[in-house]
Structures are given as structure tokens and as C-alpha cells.
Amino acid sequence: MAQQWQPDSWQNRTARQQPKYPDPAALAETLKRLASLPALTTAWEVDRLRAELVQAADGRAFVLQGGDCSESFDDCNSTAMLRKLKVLIQMSLVLIAGARKRVVRIGRIAGQYAKPRSSDVERRGEVELPCYRGDIINRPGFTLAERTPDPQLMLRAFERSAMTLNFIRALSEGGFADLHHPENWDLEFVRNTPGSRRYQQLLDSLTDSIRFMEVVSPGELHQLRRVDFFTSHDALLLHYEQALTKSERQRGWYNLGTHMVWIGDRTRELGGAHVEYCRGIRNPVGVKVGNSMTPEELVELIGILNPENESGRLTLIHRFGAEKIRERLPALVGAVRSAGCKVLWSCDPMHGNTHATRSGLKTRSFDDIISEIIGAFRIHKELGSRLGGIHLELTGEDVTECTGGPGNLTESDLSRDYRSTVDPRLNYEQSMEIAFLLAEQMR
Which residues bind Mn(2+) (predicted)? Predict the structure, then answer.
């Protein structure tokens, strides 16, 4: 692994979860076009996120990472994006007020268009087609034309990522997140629910505190007018990631299509292409840590991805499931601590708790999600470690995809408004309930 790194050196390794494009010339032309487009992010923004993650690793901040399981081209509209940002702002405010810590907001947004799949094909009756891998690769409709990987979709994904980032920047700089005007964050369909009333009480208290501080201070608290939003996605489609990787003079190589990337549990093999690609970029990198990870493998992987042992570089996102976290997590935490590795630990309580209903719908139990979160906090505390972040699949839409929660959703309720084409997400009420739970655990 000590060999010279280049953005394309991953191509000498085994690359899992990659589509098979039928026209190599069309793929090459698309990648050439992508590489010539203006960058979506800057090296300065990426470095600022790394500095924020250093604070989270030291216990001075907490990372809230959330968004869609897989973004949809159809959802690249102002209403859907606003609702997603609103729920993340509301959740972060609950964490700040309840736990008295700064919050680093990282969206699964502006690039989360590819998803790993457990099978390369999908079969319906006698028809077998390539599986749907996300809008950046193919389309969800069950026809050969829609399921054939199309490199032009990478350009469409880039365009939508650019529009999303532009919208986020305009909102965050233009007063949308101003604490003096929290009415900007209201979601019209959740008024007068228990969660919204609890949130409103917290907001009223904060508003009173702000008014008091501005009475006794020389002027308005200008730092309350904006918030930082960072973007992240699974660095799954390696041709796309390579095309957006640029050298910043003496600073090194950066993926300027996002601020942070992560490596999935299916693509984190030590000699694999995804690890090879991610080891060479300066962006913060996350690694999904699942039940098949051994302590020895994890320590070796950390050494490859963070050879200088820099704080803020590497986030370990564990995802075991409520039933297995007590069995699997302690040995991994112990090995990392014994090796002296500087990492930020985050909990993904979603992926290990996925199951199918009798009708075949994927869902997750809210009780299982809560159980894994509580278990993660307890285990880290017992071992002298620290849980510094949460990684959630959620939406600002009023969906019915996960059972349980404040609305007591059952399996029979799921079909009422199940929209995800890949994995089930938390809705607004479920997300806010988790925010209040996190604040309690952090205290």
C-alpha cells in the first residue's frame, strides 16, 4: 500500500459494486467531460470540515450526518431540499440546547446517487435484469432500457449535485438558518404533534435566551444568522469519483465533488479499489464497520487510510444491529484504543436493523434503532471511548417507511406513503424523537 498513489491507481485493484457500461467510448467521453467541469467544493471547505471533525473527536462537538438512503433526480426540487434541511437544523438545535455542544451538520446530500446492492440482477417472474444501482447509474423502472447503465447519468447527477449545493449555500448564507427567525424551519404537516410541541417549547426558551443576551450585549449576535452545512456520499462509483479528483498544488489531492466520502461495508476490503482510492485524497473519510470486521482487520485498515494518525481524517461508522452491537463493538473499540489510533466513532443504527415485511417491503423498527443508539453510548462509555456522531437515513417528508416511533406505525401503515426505491428512512417525527434521545444520552 506504500506505492505511489494516483487518482486512477484504484483501477489496478478489484473494484466491487461497479456497473458494466456497454459502450467504453461513451464512458470515456463522459468522464472527460466531467473532469473539465468546475469543482463543486473547494479544498478550503474540505479542510474546514476536517478541523470540525477534530473537535468532534475530542468531545467538543457532535456530528449529525443524515439524509436520503439514495437521492433521486426527481427529488431535486426546492420543496424536498428545504424539508430535508429543516429537519437537520431542528435536530441539530435540539442537540445543541440539550447537550450544550456544537453540532457538525453533514448531509447525505448533493451526490448520494449510487447504492451498493446485494445482487447484480433482479428477477421478476421469468424476466431477469440488472439491479437498480441508483439514479447516477441506471433507472428504477423494470425494463432493459432503464436498467442498462448509462454514463450520461453521471453528468445528470453532477448537475443536480451542483444545483443542490448552490441552493444550500444560498440558504445558509441568506438568513434561512437565522436563529432570530426560526419560523423559516417549520414543516407544515407536523404542527400540533407531540414532537413539534416539545420542539416549540425548546425553541421558545432559546429565543428568550437570545433576546436576553442581545439586551445585555453591545449588539445583535451575528454568529446566530448562519450555519455550516457539509456534504457527503458513499464513494461507490469510482470512475465518477476519479473524474472529480483534483490536485491543489502543495496541498495534495482532493475529491472536489463533495466534502466527505465514506467506504461502505461491502467495499472496504484491504486490497480493494475503494480503499486504494480513498487513501490518497485529503477529504475526511468514513468507513462503515459491520459484523464481519475483525479487530485486526480494522487496525490494519486504519493504518492504510490514516498512516499519519491525523485526528479528523477518519470516522468509523459502526453498524451492527440492536442484537449484535454488544457482541461485536467492544473488541473493535478495544483494539483501536490499544493501537493508539486517532479516530472519530459514529453510530449508524439503520443498516443493521433492516428486515423485510411479509409483503416484501424493506423496513426498520424504531425500537431497534433506539436500542442500538443507547447500546452504542453505553459501550463506548464503559470502555473509556466516546461516541462522537450519528449517521441516519432520514427525510423531511411525511413518509411511512420505518415502523414504530411517535406515530406507532405498523406494517399495515407502510404502504400508505412508502416512497423509497432502496432503503427505508425515518420520517420527521421519528427523526426528532431520536434527536431528543441523543441529547439525553450526550448529557
Answer: 69, 351, 393, 423
Q: Which residues contact 87 (CB under 8 A, 6 or more apart)?
A: 187, 394, 395, 396, 428, 431, 432
Helices of type H across 235-342: 238-243, 273-278, 295-305, 325-339
89 pLDDT tier (thresholds 50, 70, 90): confident
Q: Is the dihedral of CA 417, 422, 424, 427 positive or negative?
A: negative
pLDDT of residue 120 exceeding 70, the answer is yes
Tell me if 437 sits within 8 A of 370, measured CB to CB.
Answer: yes
Domain holding 362: CATH number?
Answer: 3.20.20.70
Tens of pLDDT, residues 235-286: 999 999 999 999 987 789 999 999 999 999 999 999 999 999 999 999 999 9
Q: Judge whether 341 is annotated as a binding position.
A: no
Amino acid letter for position 193: T
Least confident of 54-58, 154-158, 221-225: 221-225
Mean pLDDT of 56-74: 95
Is residue 290 helix, strand or coil?
coil
Statement: residue 216 has pLDDT above 70 = no
In a domain, 162, yes or no: yes
Strand, helix or coil for residue 2: coil
State yes or no: 367 annotated in a binding site.
Answer: no
160 is in an annotated binding site: no
Query: How far, in whole angstroms, is CA 56 from its chain's centroid?
Result: 16
Domain contains 1: no
Q: How many Å from the N-terminal Cα to the C-terminal Cα in the chain?
A: 41
Q: 108 labelled as ligand-binding? A: yes
Q: Residue 171: what pLDDT?
A: 83
The Cα 259–Cα 42 span in angstroms is 8
382 is in an annotated binding site: no
Average pLDDT of every residue of the chain:
90
Domain around 203 = 9-442
The total of structural domains in the chain comes to: 1
Residue 130 has phi, psi (to 5 degrees) of: -55, 145
Say whether 131 counts as a known binding-site residue: no
At CA 34, angle to CA 28 and CA 35, rounded to 5?
A: 90
Annotated ligand binding at 246? The verdict is no
